[in-house]
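in:
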């Protein structure tokens, strides 16, 4: 069975025409304006997935809630802005031989394309009476994608069966492919390649409480739990000579599994967003206030695992197979990647059905420090470290410095400087319109990335329905 793994990646690409790996604060427009720096800033439902201990900090709102806060982003460290636009917007434009050579070069890299979209459909936080702390709940939709290609993979995607990297094993001449008798394993041929995408729906609950109150020092602790429904997953990686590959896709993607001939498939049929996996996640955090201005926080998030039980296909390392694709004639790169791993023609390797597949969640350690000078100015620094390399996690450590400044009582400006997480250096910017009850805003993770020819990064986060009841300017 030729497995349709990157159809999910294709769907993610099509879903983000305006547009990172999973940094769930992208659906938080105020945090996005600080480049994702949030650990010491968040106090309400924004603490979910970040640091639940902040719910135990002294706040003055009774209820805070939001509806449909949204963020989307796409970036590359190897593509130029021109090439980036061609792939996302001009897939039908024809390629010249020179274009194909350049495209092969730019598709080779550890961060060829990173995509993500986060939507907080509902977030709600309540300050409990009598010093009992704070409670928050939310539902969040996440779609993430990551593409890394070694030179062999990029060559095959662009040039198909005529790729120079294939000729030692399958010689191509006069329209005919001939095995040479020399073989190589898929893992060795694709070493360093990663094609990852995931779509999940999260139902979250977090609780935090102050556990120590001394003069000049306050300490809070918090815990969070999430039930996760998996709409789809695709995870193909080759590292250290090992192939790690599986996928499970909801009936939403309309994949034909009738030709599965090996293994045992738990066929999940139906319509819509029917999940094909379920999981449980946990967050733990501590937050301290030192004096009146300094705040620090530490948390571990997304501990736990997902078990994919429907439409699961997996692969082990095997002999590199013959490719029949003629490669690219246009910039339709995402579709060609999908074809190379689909059941439409001879591709690089085959898959077999499986009963289930268990995978760890994208666990992260988050560290933060901040200083709040007044209600008009606050600054902080965040460091986020990925604790594993599963689909949906950061590709490298994230480091950021962020600031909030209110030049007017109704306007908050956010900015900072960040680096890492597969996106390189960025200069964020955010605008938030503030009243005592209602907030609305728009922001981008990287202003420079919107304009730069190298390392392009397009992102936007926005929200119109963020409310706090019982709040004042003091927080």
């Amino acid at each position: 069975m030729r497995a349709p793994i990157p159809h999910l990646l294709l769907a993610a690409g099509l879903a983000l025409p305006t547009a990172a790996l999973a940094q769930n604060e992208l659906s938080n427009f105020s945090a996005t304006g600080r480049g994702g720096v949030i650990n010491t800033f968040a106090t309400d439902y924004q603490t979910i997935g970040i640091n639940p201990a902040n719910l135990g900090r002294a706040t003055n709102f009774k209820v805070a809630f939001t509806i449909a806060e949204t963020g989307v982003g796409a970036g590359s460290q190897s593509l130029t802005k021109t090439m980036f636009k061609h792939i996302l917007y001009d897939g039908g434009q024809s390629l010249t031989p020179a274009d194909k050579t350049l495209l092969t070069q730019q598709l080779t890299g550890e961060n060829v394309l990173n995509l993500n979209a986060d939507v907080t459909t509902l977030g709600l936080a309540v300050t409990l009476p009598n010093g009992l702390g704070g409670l928050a709940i939310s539902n969040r939709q996440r779609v993430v994608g990551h593409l890394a290609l070694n030179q062999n993979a990029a060559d095959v995607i662009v040039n198909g069966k005529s790729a120079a990297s294939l000729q030692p094993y399958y010689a191509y001449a006069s329209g005919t492919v001939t095995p040479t008798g020399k073989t190589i394993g898929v893992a060795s041929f694709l070493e360093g390649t990663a094609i990852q995408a995931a779509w999940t729906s999260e139902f979250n609950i977090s609780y935090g409480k102050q556990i120590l109150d001394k003069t000049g020092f306050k300490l809070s602790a918090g815990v969070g739990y999430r039930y996760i429904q998996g709409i789809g997953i695709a995870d193909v990686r080759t590292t250290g000579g090992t192939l790690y590959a599986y996928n499970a896709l909801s009936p939403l993607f309309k994949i034909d599994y009738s030709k599965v001939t090996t293994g045992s498939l738990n066929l999940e049929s139906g319509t819509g967003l029917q999940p094909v996996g379920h999981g449980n996640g946990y967050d733990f955090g501590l937050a301290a206030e030192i004096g009146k201005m300094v705040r620090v926080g530490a948390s571990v998030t997304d501990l736990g695992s997902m078990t994919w039980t429907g439409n699961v296909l997996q692969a082990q390392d095997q002999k590199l197979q013959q490719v029949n694709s003629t490669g690219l004639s246009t910039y339709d790169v995402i579709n060609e990647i999908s074809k190379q791993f689909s059941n439409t023609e001879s591709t690089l390797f085959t898959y077999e059905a499986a009963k289930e597949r268990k995978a760890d969640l994208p666990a992260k350690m988050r560290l933060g420090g901040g200083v709040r000078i007044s209600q008009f100015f606050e600054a902080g620094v965040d460091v986020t470290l990925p604790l594993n390399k599963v689909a949906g996690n950061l590709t490298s450590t994230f480091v950021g410095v962020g600031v909030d400044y209110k030049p007017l009582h109704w306007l908050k400006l956010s900015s900072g400087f960040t680096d890492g997480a597969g996106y390189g250096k960025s200069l964020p910017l955010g605008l938030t319109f503030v009243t005592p009850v209602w907030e609305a805003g728009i922001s981008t993770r990287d202003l420079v990335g919107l304009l730069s020819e190298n390392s392009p990064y397009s992102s936007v986060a926005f929200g119109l329905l963020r409310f706090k009841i019982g709040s004042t300017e003091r927080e």
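note: The CA atoms of residues 6 and 338 lie 5 Å apart.
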